[in-house]
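hey so i finally got around to running the thing on that chain from the lab meeting. sorry it took forever, my laptop kept dying and i had to restart like 3 times. anyway pasting the input first so we r on the same page abt which one it is
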Amino acid sequence: MSQSGRETEYTESNVIEVFKARTDYAEPLTATEIANELGCSRRTALNKLHALEDDTDLTSKKVGGRSRVWWIPVRLDR
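ok and heres what got predicted. didnt touch it at all, straight out
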């Protein structure tokens, strides 16, 4: 008999790695894009993104009726 339940635990670090692995570090991502990269549900990605926004520099912006994009601000020293 197989064990039921989740087999993979996704961490906030997994989400940060998706942002850091991109070639265009400044490009914002949607929760769906994060979910697709990690292979998790959109709800799991959203939960991690909201936690990161509360605890880190991760920022989001509403871009439509129910759409939101997320990014890590690029700081330029001038």
